Amino acid sequence: MKKIAVALWVVTVSAFVFYSVRGNLSISADEHYAIQLDAEEKDFVLAEMKSLLLSINGILKGLHEDDMIAISKAAKSADMGMAVNASPLLMVKLPLEFKMLGMGLHKDFDKLSADTQAGINKDQIIHRLSELTSKYVSCHQVYRLSTDLKD
């Protein structure tokens, strides 16, 4: 009986690890990896993406107005604290690379906020923003969110 319980536990843990790394993926008609989510999960991820874009917009506005405090605040609004609201079930559905890109972006915003407060200059901020948006774009080149298995 113990062997069956251990075997079931190993299978369950293995499946969890597999899906935590792979996520819930299919290939979409446009050759992107389609992450299969329910409508509420998709809305959550899209709202987070929108918040990241709003932060980028705030940083650009702060650069235009030469307002380092506004830049720091805009970057802080997309920091790691933003990522804590995701449900564990959603996190299992997201592939590891997608999670790593997302968490990396939040960490980059954290660092940009702190470094802006520490006195980096506008050229350094622009360079960091370029690196940050490159990650954002690379994610959109590979993935799409889907609520339809045919998508």
From TrEMBL:
UniProt protein name: Cytochrome C
Organism name: Nitrosomonas communis
